[in-house]
UniProtKB/TrEMBL annotation:
Bilayer-crossing regions: none
Family matches, as Pfam families: PadR
Residues annotated as domain Transcription regulator PadR N-terminal: 3-76
Organism of derivation: Terriglobus albidus
InterPro entries: Metal_resp_DNA-bind_regulator, Tscrpt_reg_PadR_acidobac-type, Tscrpt_reg_PadR_N, WH-like_DNA-bd_sf, WH_DNA-bd_sf
Protein name: PadR family transcriptional regulator
């Protein structure tokens, strides 16, 4: 969900995705390469992102990932599920 949400703003390469998640989470969340790239491959195969090779700001050949229409729909579904689960947890914490 976080990868899809970060890509909603526009195409990014893997390292930039990890950095953006880290920065936007006030440096609380760190996405390790060992989990990021398999996740990117999985969502690429599901058609939620597309990818193309390009050159990074440091002049390296990198793969840029872009959210697809299917990815936008998936993100919206995941955000709805997240909100539903978050509200359920809050209800338990308030009443238990």
């Amino acid at each position: 969900m976080l990868v899809l949400r970060v890509l909603r703003a526009g195409p990014l390469h893997g390292y930039a995705i990890a950095q953006k998640i880290h920065v936007l989470s006030n440096e609380v969340l760190e996405v390790e390469e060992g989990s990021l790239y398999p996740a990117l491959q999985k969502i690429l195969l599901k058609g939620w992102v597309s990818a193309e090779w390009g050159i990074s700001e440091t002049n390296r050949k990198v793969r840029f990932y872009k959210l697809t229409t299917a990815g936008r729909k998936q993100l919206e579904a995941e955000l709805r599920d997240y909100d539903r689960v978050t509200e359920a947890i809050k209800a338990i914490l308030r009443t238990a």
